[in-house]
Amino acid sequence: MTEALLEKEEVVVTDDGDHDRFAHFFEKEDIVLANTEGVKIKALCGKWDVPLRDPMKYPICPTCTERHKELKK
What we know:
Strand order of the largest sheet: 1-2
Largest sheet: 2 strands, antiparallel
């Protein structure tokens, strides 16, 4: 299923800061890597980030939500 998602991958422009206002979906294994080694990981929407803040305090990224639903199908 992940391969189908990667084929549709698009570049996300994050210069305007809008993606910093959202909580994003990441792979579980990647979150552990980011938390232990402090490396940036890629969200479902394409944003690279080190998820350090509490995701419950932010709205969920609409692009991540859409792609997560596609993966569940």
